[in-house]
Design brief:
- The complex is a heterodimer.
- Chain A is mainly beta.
- Chain A is about 0% helix and about 55% strand.
- The radius of gyration of chain A is 13 Å and the shape is globular.
- Chain B is built from no helices and 11 strands.
- Classes of the chains: A mainly beta, B mainly beta.
- At the A-B interface, strand 6 and strand 11 of A face strand 4, strand 5, strand 9 and strand 10 of B.
Chain lengths: ~110, ~110
Amino acid sequence: DVKVTQSSRYLVKRTGEKVFLECVQDMDHENMFWYRQDPGLGLRLIYFSYDVKMKEKGDIPEGYSVSREKKERFSLILESASTNQTSMYLCASSRGEKLFFGSGTQLSVL
Amino acid sequence: DQQVKQNSPSLSVQEGRISILNCDYTNSMFDYFLWYKKYPAEGPTFLISISSIKDKNEDGRFTVFLNKSAKHLSLHIVPSQPGDSAVYFCAARGTGSARQLTFGSGTQLTVLP
């Protein structure tokens, strides 16, 4: 079974803090993605990566950055957390068209 | 502008009956469509997919229909079971360099026992 692991299930941070969300996949997938899920808005793509050290902006990259130093690991970084970044964050990996998701990180920014 | 739309935020169906979840899209360049199911506190899981060259794909109780002229797809669940209660997301894949998935806003399905 494909396993996508997100380091934290729940996270509470203060406004202005730097936040790291970590994601690791064990299936040697080239492609990795970060989405956020908000009520009524579905899943929106933040950043994605098709290879190590490669990154592409998704639909809502503002306020975020990413890092992919190794194939299995894709990190999402909130440089200075704001309250409007309170959300469920979902990491996914894929080789073809099918995405495999982690369990998500519910981030609250106070 | 949402390219993939699920206009029904929620749907309630009696156990044993058919559930029909709908999805509309605007981009005629989408070449592949997928449905994902999501339970609370879990990540979405893949359910069923269809290529744009087909109009129907069936997998057990789940069937997806694609009407390209109307830019509409639907997911049929027959018979519905209480365990099917979840949020269902429709997703579409672009072509060329933009091959990432675009998701709809989701439909909460509740199957009543």
